[in-house]
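Late entry, iron/sulfur cluster complex.
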Amino acid sequence: MTAPRSHRLIPLLDQRTIARAEPVALPIHGRLPLPGTLRDRLARPLRDLRISVTDRCNFRCSYCMPKEVFDKDYRYLPQPALLSFEEIERVARQFVALGVEKIRLTGGEPLLRKNIELLIAQLARLRTPDGRALDLTLTTNGSLLQKKAQALRDAGLHRVTVSLDGLDDQVFKRMNDVDFPVADVLNGIEAAKAAGLGPIKVNMVVQRGVNDHEIIPMARHFRGSGVVLRFIEYMDVGATNGWRMDQVLPSAQVIERLQSAFALAPLEASAPGETAQRWTYLDAGGHPDAGAGEIGVISSVTQAFCGDCNRARLSTEGQLYLCLFASTGHDLRSLVRAGADDTALAGAISAIWGQREDRYSMLRTTSEPGAPSQGERRVEMSYIGG
Ligand code: SAM
Ligand code: SF4
Ligand code: SF4
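Prediction complete; structure with ligand written out below:
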């Protein structure tokens, strides 16, 4: 069971006051690194950009936007604070020039942003320095996917990741906390498939005692469907979800449970910086069963993957975050709105990335200098996106 709500620690501060950005100084010597050579202090390249297009959501998942905090009085960002599509495209273009090959749109719920297809069309036109199209994807709760899948595909989106925390309607409704039915998300997934938005991934956040009994039913449902199901450990992101370690079901235990029902074997990572550990289903002869497909686990809590983390996050209001668990961002919006040209903007991003040494998950359990302190306030997931 989740902690009774009355027992949760709910901070009363506006979460964005903790997310005040570092002003960004323009580099004095404006030499940009050669394409693909930018590295942070731990020699990690910049490959993946996650862009949050809205801080609003039509769900109130208790692990992300609990109703008690994100209620009718919650002050979302006013429209002028949001980066416009033109601003997002401009910033994204500099990231691509510096090595980004994959862009994921997220939120809040990205499909709530009006005319999101227009942004997708703009981003789909970007090319890497050696002329390749980007891997352009989007993470959604699936609620509007049935309606929008075809338009997203037509605009140039390649694929989608859909979040779904269970197949049991009661469990799912309790988790999204707005009574949203499973069937509508499943219809959204079918619409995405029909529109060619694949390979589709489905993410299930596992909370012990809340939805862990849905692991096997979810695996059964998606096995052989062409959809890749991934189980995510419940993370201590933000400061509002009342996270407790005893609600985390370690991925190793997820795999154990799956192995009680299916024959599985581990797969090699398909790309550096990949967050999921992949497993293939085996056939009766012990060989990978291509028809059954694969599943994955994302062990964000029990197995740090900071060592090759190549992800940057751009918040809805244009703050650059270097880690999901960061407490401050770097203010790119001010630069853009002050009229910085492309070289200055790329120079600033490159300087910020060059200084990066974030590795929260690796430090979580240590007392090394720089390790996160217990009371440190972090930015909300709905603000910078997952
Ligand atoms: N609204 C969209 C959705 O739910 O897919 C996109 C934004 S959501 C913040 C991105 C991802 O973060 C989702 O897959 C969600 O399940 C995951 N997420 C949110 N809070 C989390 C937490 N505390 N632990 C693990 N994953 C979380
Ligand atoms: Fe909304 Fe996604 Fe957060 Fe759920 S996880 S509240 S759907 S942003
Ligand atoms: Fe990357 Fe930060 Fe997550 Fe580590 S904790 S994998 S640095 S986002």
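The chain has one domain: 15-384. Will revisit in the morning.
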